[in-house]
Amino acid sequence: MMAPRSRTLAAWLPLLLCAGPVLADPATPRLEIQPPRDFGYAMGDILEQSFTVALPRGYTLETGYLPQTGALDEYLEIQGSEWRMEQQEEGPVYEVRIAYQVFKGVRATETATVPALPLRFQGPSPLAAQLPEWRFTVAPLIPPDLADEQVAIRGPLPPMETPTRPHTSRLVGYLGLASALLGLIAWQRHGSEPRPFARAHRELRRQLRRGATAATYRAAVQRLHQALNETAGHSLFAEQLGGFCAERPAFAELREELAGFFGLSRRVFFAAPDAPLPPDYPAARLEELCRRCAQAERRRA
CB atoms < 10 A from the CB of 119, how many? Predict the structure, then answer.
């Protein structure tokens, strides 16, 4: 004798065997429609019909059969259609959008219809789907009790005046801020650049104001050498003065004076280091050379 549970399973088994192939049938398009609203349209309005169709692997949508631009019926004109396909693991998924424009003016609310749209596919076996027809209402733009000759066409609205004074003030503020920032950048790039001769001239004036001694005089000569080296970017020797002045034309007029300074330097530090201060090259001349070099430095900047 068969138990009750076994008898129940035996009763459902034929149904499960029949339902299995249907559920597993892969050749079935899945159609999802996003219908627009079906009321409130008037002449000139655009309505869009969007839908998504997912196909089994190996199938494609024949997009050439989608509605083409042109008049559809007395109510509608097709503005165009567009689509895009995304290949997913189960198969391609198409997103389609079709735009219609209402071009019929009505004098009372009427119902219009977007006809059913059959979809065609390519694949290993026949496959078909169809968008159902879709109804919507078209409302009049003119009241029904108003004759056409009584309609007054309203002129175009004048452009709205927008006060520009706050914008002008804001623009002036922005320009001022931009100028200040540019000035700060220029000062950082150029104004704050070290000027060796300017610094050396200030130091020489302070040192020599206290009186020119042998020590302060030699310190002044060394300080001027330091300014020359900083300007050249390396230790500058007498035989390099030609190239130094060629690269820095602002110093060209000082070439002879600088050559005399290098001769002085040799005498002070090497030829006669213990000799008294050279009478032909007093400290004032040294300071004057440094001042003229500072002027050339400013012209070069």
Answer: 21
Q: What is the DSSP string of 120-186?
A: EEESSS--EEEEPPEEEEE--SS-TTS-GGGPPPPPPPPPPP---HHHHHHHHHHHHHHHHHHHHHH
List the structure tokens of 24.
Answer: 């597993």
Query: What is the distance in angstroms between the CA of the first residue and the CA of the last residue of the chain?
Result: 114
Structure tokens at 239: 């035989």
Q: Who contacts 218 (Cβ-Cβ below 8 Å, separation ≥6)?
A: 268, 269
User: What's the rounded Cα separation, in Å, for the pair 98 and 78?
Assistant: 8
Q: What is the pLDDT of residues 253-280, one digit of tens each?
A: 999 999 999 998 888 887 766 777 788 8
Give CA–CA dist 301/290, Å, rounded.
Answer: 17
pTM: 0.45
The answer to whether the CB of 69 falls within 8 A of the CB of 166 is no
Question: How far is residue 11's CA from residue 25's CA, in Å, rounded to a whole number?
Answer: 24
- The answer, yes or no, to whether residue 21 has pLDDT greater than 60, is no
Core vs surface per residue 177-188: b (16+ CB within 10 A) or e: eeeeeeeeeeee
Q: How far apart are CA 257 and CA 289, in angstroms?
A: 7
pLDDT tens-digit readout, 159-196:
888 777 778 888 888 888 898 888 887 766 655 557 89
3-state secondary structure of 17: helix
Other beta carbons less than 10 A from residue 257's beta carbon? 14
227 burial type by CB count under 10 A (0-12 exposed, 13-18 middle, 19+ buried): buried
Tell which residue, 117, 141, 112, 100, has the closest CA to residue 39: 112
